[in-house]
Design a protein that fits this description.
Layout (H helix, E strand, L loop, with lengths): L1 H9 L11 H22 L11 H27 L1 H17 L5 H18 L3 H19 L3 E7 L6 H14 L3 E8 L4 E7 L6 H11 L7 E6 L1
Antiparallel strand pairs: 1-3, 1-4, 2-3
């Protein structure tokens, strides 16, 4: 009975005057920043880069940080409204897990953030909903400003794999791309690159540049995958 009364008190509306509660807004923002920084320390651990071979692995650090943000948003909301909100969040998470089909873990993280923002707004915490939305928007802008791409170069001219790899690596560097991993298969005459593209670049532009700048006698066929 007492727990029910406490939950009722905790679920009282805050409303728009919450924007005047500057200490709470500052504390909430610092919680999001701390969670992001700590998540980033784990996501970008020095040993992680040496094990990246695929596009999905290259995207994982962003996913880790986004989920750290999700945890912080849930924590701040539970601290304000009580454990009952935690059960609601877990229920929503189960619904999204089994009823929602997203293309990637990155999209799932965004879906959870959007759902939490809607929940927070519905709980009449507009000030925290705005803080969480702006913070998530900033993270997405930073992360997706330099998209991670994977290009497979197959049918490389026979006995030219090493020279072709050097040529493609050089052109990617000239285009401002940061190579994350490079794999060569001499038997299959195939090259694979996972790299971070410069801001405002496009697949068509990168494809055209690689086709034009790599010498014709070293070119292969390009297959792209962009997250």
């Amino acid at each position: 009975m007492t727990a029910g009364l406490l939950d009722t008190q905790q679920l009282q509306s805050v409303g728009w005057h919450g924007f005047l509660d500057l200490p709470y807004m500052a504390e909430s923002l610092l919680s999001l920043v701390l969670a992001t920084v700590l998540g980033g320390l784990i996501a970008f651990h020095p040993t992680t880069r040496r094990t990246i071979d695929t596009l999905e692995e290259a995207e994982l650090p962003k996913v880790y940080i986004m989920y750290a943000l999700v945890g912080a948003v849930v924590g701040v909301t539970v601290l304000e409204y009580g454990v009952v909100i935690g059960f609601i969040v877990f229920g929503l998470g189960g619904l999204m897990r089994f009823r929602t089909d997203t293309a990637s873990t990155r999209d799932t993280g965004r879906l959870i953030i959007v759902t939490l923002v809607g929940l927070i707004a519905g709980l009449n915490l507009p000030h925290f909903a705005v803080i969480a939305t702006l913070f998530a928007w900033l993270l997405i802008y930073i992360f997706d400003g330099h998209p991670v791409c994977q290009v497979e170069v197959h049918e490389v001219p026979k006995d030219q794999v090493k020279q072709a790899a050097e040529a493609y690596r050089r052109v990617l560097g000239e285009l401002g791309c940061t190579i994350i991993s490079e794999n060569k298969s001499f038997s299959k005459r195939k090259l694979e690159y996972v790299f971070r593209a410069p801001r405002n670049s496009s697949q068509n532009g990168l494809h055209t540049a690689l086709c034009e700048r790599v010498p014709e006698d070293l070119r292969g066929e390009l297959d792209w995958e962009i997250e």
